[in-house]
Design brief:
The chain has four helices and no strands. The protein is mainly alpha-helical. The protein has a domain of 72 residues. The radius of gyration is 18 Å and the shape is elongated. It binds zinc ion.
């Protein structure tokens, strides 16, 4: 039996952390650029890394939102493709997983 209450609060906490991280990255990406050319090159590299991390965080937030919806409507832990149990072991590692191992592969 899955501890849904626990999973839900873990997901919500994780979502808050990710939301803060995205906000920080947004603020950094919007900050003024240096007037120094070599500094600017560094900044551009940093920005590319940050944009990628931001995308990853946004995707994770989306996955968490979907998982929270599935907890609400009672379909959490069931594969959204084949309808099989995702399995407690997999959900422990990936609490927002929407697919069982065979469908995710
Ligand atoms: Zn499946």
């Amino acid at each position: 039996m899955l501890a849904l209450g626990e999973i839900k609060s873990d997901l919500e906490n994780r979502r808050v952390v990710l939301g803060k991280r995205v906000a920080e990255m947004e603020a950094a990406l919007r900050s003024e650029h240096s007037s120094n050319f070599s500094e600017q090159a560094h900044e551009r590299e940093d920005e590319e890394v940050m944009e990628r991390l931001e995308q990853e965080a946004l995707q994770e937030i989306e996955a968490i939102d979907h998982a929270l919806t599935r907890i609400e409507n009672g379909t959490y832990g069931t594969c959204t493709v084949c309808g099989q149990d995702i399995g407690e072991k997999r959900l422990k590692v990936l609490p927002y997983a929407g697919l069982c191992i065979s469908c995710a592969d």
